[in-house]
TrEMBL record:
Pfam families: DnaJ
Annotated J domain residues: 130-181
Lineage: Archaea, Methanobacteriati, Methanobacteriota, Stenosarchaea group, Halobacteria
PANTHER family assigned: DNAJ HOMOLOG 1, MITOCHONDRIAL-RELATED
Protein name: DnaJ domain-containing protein
Molecular function GO terms recorded: unfolded protein binding
Region (Disordered) location: 59-170
C-alpha cells in the first residue's frame, strides 16, 4: 500500500513536470516537447503500475496464453459474460481443435464443431412446428420473416435485458431448427 502511494506521488510529480514542459514548448520552442514525451510516458507507466491495472493485464494475458491464444487476441465469441458462460458450458474453454485453431467450415451432422465439441448443425432438437410456434411465424414464412421474428424474440428474452435464460435458449434452438430447414 505504501509503495502504491509513493508511486502515485512520483507519477503526479512527473505529470506536473510534463505539463510544465508542454507549456514551455508552446511558449518558447517545440523542441522542449522532446523532453515532455518521456516524462509523460514515465508518469503514465508509474500510474499504471500503482493503480493495479498492470498486474491485472498481465494476469489476463497469462490466462489467455494458457488457454492457447495470443495475448492480444480476444477469445472466440468475445469477452462478454454471456460468451464466457457459453464457453464454460462447452467445457473446452473456447479452444478449438488440438492446437487451438478455429474451424472455418460448418460442421456436418455428427461431426465435430469449430470448437472441438459436438456439431450443432442439423436438427437442433426441436420439431419444426414447435420452432414456428416459439418464434410466432406461419408455416409458409420466408427466411427473412423467420430472421425478423427471431431478432424480435431475442430482444425480448435475452438474459442481459431482463429476459428468461431458458426461453432465450429455446428461441435460439427454434431459429437453428428453422434456419437449417
Amino acid at each position: 500500500m505504501d509503495r502504491d502511494v509513493l508511486l502515485l506521488g512520483i507519477a503526479a510529480v512527473l505529470a506536473g513536470l510534463t505539463a510544465t514542459l508542454a507549456m514551455l514548448a508552446i511558449a518558447y520552442s517545440p523542441f522542449v516537447f522532446l523532453a515532455a514525451i518521456p516524462t509523460g510516458a514515465a508518469a503514465y507507466f508509474l500510474w499504471y503500475q500503482a493503480s493495479g491495472r498492470l498486474k491485472e493485464d498481465m494476469r489476463s494475458r497469462a490466462a489467455r496464453r494458457r488457454a492457447g491464444r495470443r495475448a492480444d487476441e480476444a477469445p472466440p465469441g468475445g469477452d462478454s459474460r454471456f460468451a464466457r458462460e457459453a464457453r464454460a458450458r462447452m467445457g473446452d474453454g473456447g479452444r478449438a481443435g488440438p492446437r487451438g485453431t478455429r474451424g472455418t467450415q460448418r460442421s456436418r451432422v455428427g461431426g465435430r464443431g469449430p470448437t472441438g465439441g459436438a456439431a450443432m448443425s442439423g436438427n437442433a432438437g426441436m420439431p419444426p412446428g414447435d420452432a414456428r410456434r416459439t418464434l410466432g411465424v406461419d408455416a409458409d414464412a420466408s427466411e427473412s420473416a423467420v430472421k425478423a421474428a427471431y431478432r424480435d424474440r431475442v430482444k425480448e428474452t435475452h438474459p442481459d435485458s431482463g429476459g428468461d435464460e431458458e426461453e432465450f435458449k429455446r428461441v435460439n434452438r427454434a431459429y437453428e431448427t428453422l434456419k437449417t430447414e
